[in-house]
Structure formats: structure tokens, C-alpha cells
Fold this protein.
Amino acid sequence: HGNTVHAGSNRVGGNHDNNAQPIAQNNIAELKARLSAMAAEISQFKAKEKMYMQRTVQLESSNRFLTNKYVALDTSNAKTTALAKKNRELEAENKFLSSKNTMLTSKALNLASAESEIDTLIDNATSCSAMARTHLERNSSLLPGTERKLIS
């Protein structure tokens, strides 16, 4: 049975040899087309990969820049915090000195007032002394000689 010769065939086993070459050529053409499509895809992927690599380099550069900026801002923030603390200390000292200044101003006013009172007392005493001298000089003729010398 297995060795039957079919019409149109020069081989044992069937007539499929007639179509073998066109099928193979079709397969080769299809494979070539697929390879060509794959090559195009690979080239697109390579282009994308190149673009992504460039973008990665850009992002790494940006990242370094931002990291440096962050460090600078962190340093600046620490300085600002220290300055704010110093400012609060200075404000407290200023408040203390201001109250001390108010107290000293009040004392100075009291001293000026006391000085004015002392000047008035000195003026009064000088005036009283002058009146007493005049009074004594008028009445010195009534005093004995020794007291007269003491007055002048």
C-alpha cells in the first residue's frame, strides 16, 4: 500500500511535491518581511533607548543640581533658624535694656527734680543768709565788739 504511485508524481507517497517550492518561497518571503519588521522595531527600540539614555543623563544632571540646591537650601535654612534664634535673643535683650532705659530716665527726671529743689533751697538759703547779714549789720551796733568782728 505505501508504495502507490499517484498520477502526476514521480515519487512514491503523494503529489505534495508540486506545491513544495512555492510554499517554501512564500514562507521565506513571509519570514523576510517579519525579519524586516523586527529590524525596524529593533531600530526604533535603539532610537528610543538612545533617547532614554540621553534623558537619563539629563535627569541625573538635574538630580545632582537639585541635590546641591537642596543642600544649599538646607544650609541656608539652618542659618536662618540660627539667625531667628539670635534675633529672639536680641529682642529679649532689647526689651530688658528698654525697661532699664525707662527706669534710668525716670531716675534722671527724679534727680533733675531733686536738683531743682536743691537749687531752690540754695537760692532760699542764700537769700536768707543775705537778709540775716543785712539784719545783723543793721543791728550790729547793739552787739559788743567781738561779735561784730565775727560777722564781718
About this structure: The two ends are 181 Å apart (CA to CA). The mean pLDDT is 86. Helices lie at 17-139, 145-151. The longest helix spans residues 17-139.
